[in-house]
C-alpha cells in the first residue's frame, strides 16, 4: 500500500496553493509562515517533486503542483461533505444565521413561527449583522445580505428587491397643509439614510420633481431607523411596504403614494462558496424561497 503524505502537509499545501502565499496560508491555519514552509518542504521531499516556485512576495505552483492541487482539494471537499453529512444526521440540526437588521426585525421575525412549525427539529440561532461575514473565521452558516449582489467567495440566492414609496405618520400631516400630490411633500422634512442619499433624489426625479426645493430632514444609518422616525412623526421616509407592513396595518404609518422607486439593491441569502450545504441550511433555503413567492406575486 502506498504511504500517503501526512495530513498537515496536505493542508498547508492546499491553503498555500489557494492563497498563492505562505503568509496568508499561515494566517488561515493559525501557524507561522515558517511552519507552513517546513510542511511543504516535507511534502515535496515525500513526493520527490517541487510543488512551488518561490518568488519574493508570492509562491507559484509548478506544473506538478498544479496537477496535484486539484485532487487534493477534491479530497478535502469530500472529507468536508462526509463530516457535514455525519453532523446533519444527528436528531437535532443547528443553523446559525446573520441577518441584515431591517430584514431581521421587519420581515424574518414575524415569520419565524412558520419555520419552527415546519422544522421543529432545527435549532436556529440568529444574529443581527450590518456588514459582510467572514465565513472562514466565524461559525455562521448562512447570512442575509442587503446590496447589489456583487460579493466574492459566496453562493448567493436572490430573495427580493427593494421597492420604496413615501410613508409617514398620519399625525405629521397638518390640516392646513395636506399632502394630496407629491409636490406637497416639500412642506415637510424628508428623512434620509446616510449611505443611500440618492434614494430621495431618484424618487423625486422619477416623479418630475426638483429635489432642491424639498426640505432635508434628519439622517439615519439605516432604513429601519428612518421608518421608526417616521412613526414618531419626525418626517417622511422612503420605505418598502413589505418591511413596514405591521406599521401600515396598525395605522401608525400611511403610504402617501403608490409610485415606487425600484432600486438596484436587494436582499440575498448567502453562504460560503465551497461550503457543503447541511440539511438545516437546505431546509432554511427552501423555506425562505417559498416564503418569498407570495410576496413577489403580491408585488407584481
Could you describe the 3D structure shown?
Helix 7 links the parallel strand 7 and strand 8 (216-220). This protein is of the alpha/beta class. Strands 3, 4, 5, 6, 9, 10 and 11 form a seven-stranded mixed beta sheet that branches. It has a two-stranded antiparallel ribbon with strand order 1-2. The chain is built from ten helices and eleven strands. The termini are far apart. Keywords: DNA-binding, Transcription, Transcription regulation.
Whole-number radius of gyration? 26 Å
Gross morphology: elongated
Q: Proportion of β residues?
A: 15-25%
In terms of per-residue confidence, which ranges show pLDDT below 50 for 5 or more consecutive residues? none
The N- to C-terminal Cα distance equals: 63 Å
CATH hierarchy, class of the largest domain: Alpha Beta
Annotate the secondary structure layout.
Blueprint: H1 7-19, H2 22-29, H3 33-47, E1 52-54, E2 59-61, H4 63-88, E3 93-99, H5 101-108, H6 112-118, E4 122-128, E5 142-147, E6 154-168, E7 190-193, H7 198-206, E8 216-220, H8 223-231, E9 237-240, H9 245-250, E10 254-255, E11 261-272, H10 279-299
Parallel strand pairs: 3-4, 3-5, 7-8
Antiparallel strand pairs: 1-2, 5-11, 6-9, 6-10, 6-11
Helix pairs in contact: 1-2, 1-3, 1-4, 2-3
Amino acid at each position: 500500500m502506498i504511504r500517503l503524505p501526512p495530513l498537515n502537509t496536505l493542508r498547508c499545501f492546499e491553503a498555500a496553493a489557494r492563497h498563492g502565499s505562505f503568509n496568508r496560508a499561515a494566517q488561515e491555519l493559525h501557524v507561522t509562515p515558517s511552519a507552513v514552509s517546513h510542511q511543504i518542504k516535507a511534502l515535496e521531499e515525500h513526493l520527490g517533486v517541487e510543488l512551488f516556485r518561490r518568488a519574493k512576495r508570492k509562491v507559484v505552483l509548478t506544473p506538478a503542483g498544479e496537477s496535484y492541487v486539484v485532487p487534493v482539494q477534491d479530497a478535502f471537499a469530500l472529507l468536508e461533505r462526509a463530516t457535514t453529512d455525519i453532523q446533519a444526521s444527528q436528531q437535532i440540526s443547528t443553523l446559525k444565521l446573520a441577518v441584515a437588521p431591517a430584514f431581521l426585525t421587519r420581515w424574518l421575525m414575524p415569520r419565524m413561527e412558520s419555520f419552527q412549525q415546519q422544522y421543529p427539529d432545527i435549532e436556529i440561532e440568529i444574529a443581527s449583522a450590518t456588514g459582510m461575514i467572514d465565513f472562514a473565521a466565524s461559525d455562521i452558516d448562512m447570512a442575509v445580505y442587503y446590496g447589489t449582489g456583487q460579493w466574492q467567495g459566496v453562493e448567493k440566492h436572490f430573495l427580493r428587491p427593494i421597492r420604496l414609496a413615501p410613508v409617514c405618520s398620519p399625525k405629521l400631516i397638518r390640516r392646513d397643509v395636506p399632502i394630496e400630490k407629491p409636490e406637497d411633500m416639500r412642506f415637510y422634512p424628508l428623512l434620509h439614510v446616510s449611505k443611500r442619499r440618492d434614494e430621495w433624489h431618484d424618487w423625486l426625479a422619477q416623479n418630475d420633481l426638483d429635489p432642491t426645493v424639498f426640505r432635508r430632514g434628519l439622517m439615519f444609518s439605516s432604513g429601519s431607523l428612518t421608518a421608526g422616525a417616521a412613526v414618531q412623526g419626525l418626517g417622511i421616509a422612503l420605505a418598502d411596504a413589505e418591511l413596514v407592513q405591521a406599521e401600515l396595518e396598525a395605522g401608525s404609518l400611511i403610504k402617501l403614494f403608490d409610485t415606487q422607486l425600484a432600486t438596484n439593491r436587494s436582499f440575498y441569502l448567502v453562504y460560503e462558496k465551497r461550503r457543503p450545504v447541511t440539511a438545516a441550511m437546505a431546509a432554511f433555503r427552501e423555506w425562505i424561497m417559498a416564503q418569498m413567492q407570495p410576496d413577489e406575486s403580491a408585488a407584481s
